[in-house]
Amino acid sequence: MSDSIAAGATYSPASRAFHWASALFVIGAWTLGLLGDELPRGPMRHAGEFAHVLLGQFVLLLLVLRIVWRFVTPPPPAEPSPFGLPGELASRLGQFAIYALLFSVPIVGLVTLFHGGETLPLLGVYDIPSPWPRNRELKHYSKEIHELLAHMLIVIATLHAAAALAHHYFLRDGTLRRMLPFLPSPR
Ligand code: HEM
Ligand code: HEM
Would 34 be classed as within a structural domain? Predict the structure, then answer.
């Protein structure tokens, strides 16, 4: 295993923090979304829905921050791999698909909330009433799309994580290590 990553070939501490915080919020929002209906009606169910919508908003906020930060500290070049250009293209395509879903899942979630005639607790501090009247049918359709996109995000992120682990344990390169949260910052 290459135990030294070339100086500067790691993600910046901020990029790593955005990555792992976003991963945790996605898994949290997904779990609350799936289990939301299992919670007993009343304050528990309401707290679950509130936490779901809040975590989902943080996912969107982190997406904006990490894209802006990508221009400030561009990601390190891909580690050389035996799969060459096709491998790099597959990784880029996977990351692009994840970005697109990190944007579209929360947005369609917001549309679902507003079609339910519900208020958006913007980052938990400011209530924005729905601009639309309650519409059960439209809520049903947007909820189906929201759920489908959410499951796609989890499936692609799982494949993405498996690829990162394969780089680490089989290809024995630095791909995973340079994204790990607790690394000395590059000089
Ligand atoms: C990455 C972020 C998110 C993920 C992974 C996610 C995932 C999910 C999942 C799996 C469901 C359950 C669908 C079902 O049981 O049919 C759900 C429902 C829902 N989500 Fe999200 N969601 C996210 C963000 C958001 C955001 C930001 C909002 C609103 C601003 C939102 C609003 C909703 C609403 C209104 C429902 C339907 C609840 C109901 O009435 O049953 N979601 N979400
Ligand atoms: C919901 C979960 C996850 C999401 C949404 C996600 C998303 C992303 C995104 C968008 C990137 C591109 C760089 C960036 O902007 O940060 C990335 C890179 C990366 N992720 Fe994840 N990730 C998730 C989970 C994981 C897990 C569980 C692992 C490891 C076990 C992992 C390992 C990596 C590695 C090693 C990179 C750098 C890849 C490279 O530079 O070639 N990710 N991830």
Answer: yes
